[in-house]
Design goal:
This protein has one domain. About 40% of the residues lie in helices and about 10% in strands.
């Protein structure tokens, strides 16, 4: 993994933490129902957090392509299936 090229500001770190804190966790009650994300949604969420954290640290992050693949449940992007390049 490449070294960080910048130090994030306190405000940027706080915004990132707030973004994560607003997320629902598995089993949490949301709108009267138990939150139970699909595997693909969970992977996509974690990949997005990794990208956001790397951008915050000033690292170059490849953006996901618009190429979609069929999934038994829904269409998801290639990045979700194969990981985000560093």
């Amino acid at each position: 993994m490449p070294k960080s090229t910048k130090k994030p500001t306190r405000e940027q770190l706080l915004q990132f933490v707030e973004q994560v804190a607003r997320m629902s966790h598995e089993g949490e009650i949301v709108d009267g129902a138990c939150f139970d994300p699909t595997y693909e949604d969970s992977v996509a969420t974690v990949n997005g957090l990794i990208c956001d954290a790397r951008r915050l640290l000033g690292q170059k992050v490849e953006t996901p392509s618009d190429d979609l693949v069929e999934c038994p449940d829904e269409k998801i992007c290639q990045v979700c299936l194969h990981g985000i390049p560093a």
